[in-house]
Amino acid sequence: xxxxxxxxxxxxxxxxxxxxxxxxxxxxxxxxxxxxxxxxxxxxxxxxxxxxxxxxxxxxxxxxxxxxxxxxxxxxxxxxxxxxxxxxxxxxxxxxxxxxxxxxxxxxxxxxxxxxxxxxxxxxxxxxxxxxxxxxxxxxxxxxxxxxxxxxxxxxxxxxxxxxxxxxxxxxxxxxxxxxxxxxxxxxxxxxxxxxxxxxxxxxxxxxxxxxxxxxxxxxxxxxxxxxxxxxxxxxxxxxxxxxxxxxxxxxxxxxxxxxxxxxxxxxxxxxxxxxxxxxxxxxxxxxxxxxxxxxxxxxxxxxxxxxxxxxxxxxxxxxxxxxxxxxxxxxxxxxxxxxxxxxxxxxxxxxxxxxxxxxxxxxxxxxxxxxxxxxxxxxxxxxxxxxxxxxxxxxxxxxxxxxxxxxxxxxxxxxxxxxxxxxxxxxxxxxxxxxxxxxxxxxxxxxxxxxxxxxxxxxxx
Length: 462
Hints:
Helix content is 28%, strand content 35%. With 462 residues, it is an alpha+beta fold. It folds into 4 domains: 21-112, Rossmann fold (3-Layer(aba) Sandwich); 124-214, Elongation Factor Tu (Ef-tu), domain 3, CATH 2.40.30.10; 247-345, Rossmann fold (3-Layer(aba) Sandwich); 350-445, Translation factors (Elongation Factor Tu (Ef-tu), domain 3), CATH 2.40.30. The strands form 5 sheets. The protein has a 6-stranded antiparallel barrel. It starts with 8 loop residues before the first helix and ends in a 17-residue tail after the last strand.
């Protein structure tokens, strides 16, 4: 069971791979959702038998028959309709029919599974989830698939290693060993191991440390390779400078468990834009610490916590250093806020608007000033000190500003359509009768969405 958001796809895929039977929980009032179809695909890809639990049957708008027909169209044919899929109608809240669900799980296990494992081998199995517990340190949940895991064993998973200090079963009770098929919480890793990694017991702690270091080096090399793909070469640097360099929004991301961090990073990676990008400087499991704040201050990063909070010292340090801490419980709020922060980093769009046109009808040479164009304003309004283009035979021949604007012999601030005026252009005296003077304004418009284009082309007369 995972959050329904698509960001948790990797978590669902991992769940399907490590399990023997998938119990597909479908709400009787919602029926089949996109993530339900995705979970069915994961279970099929892992070649795992499916038992359907139709939940919330106590609700007034529950419609179990609709769930049946929707799932039948996905290839899960109910047994009472001549298929092979076991369906159980339950209410988790009211604890209705849970015995029936357990019976059906055992039925499928007897009929379809041959589960054997060597319990005398050195233990191995996948890490389902990991977190940093305030009192106990790194805690990892492992599903033992072969061998027997015992307290005191040297263990390695990904770039994490350690000696098993304690084992807890699913009830939270201490156990001395865990045999195949048993999920256990392990205390003793030096850091929370990545979810999905295969944990295995090795002979000594020294071997565990050396294996973890080799894997850590490999992971760092892979991360460096990924970063360098989006890095900067001299050639791309010049083109980026020409276009206006890409701006980075640096983030430090902390989550309650490895799966949450992974989901958040994968969602943030989907935010693509040519001008701004998200750069996750550091990611980790556990509360927001002073170390995170110091790193954020050094890299000018925003600290984001997903289901975690900063401790008092970290909060005080953040206030002193001017580091912004944001905490979230729902993933789409996190991505929405980060998108808004990126929008704030975008350059404003320059838009151009024609405000008026005037036709040159007479020319007056004035010593010390130059040529004054006697004009009729044919549309809009002409303003003093405004920008203007000289258009001759449909072609723009000069772009300048209106340095003087007169109405008869008086200076005017603006002249509206239908009135005559005298216009002196700044730095341009080669005006001819019949020229069109086009007055325009350039405005800076702040962007409100990442989907908006970077700039609109200037409107030029054709």
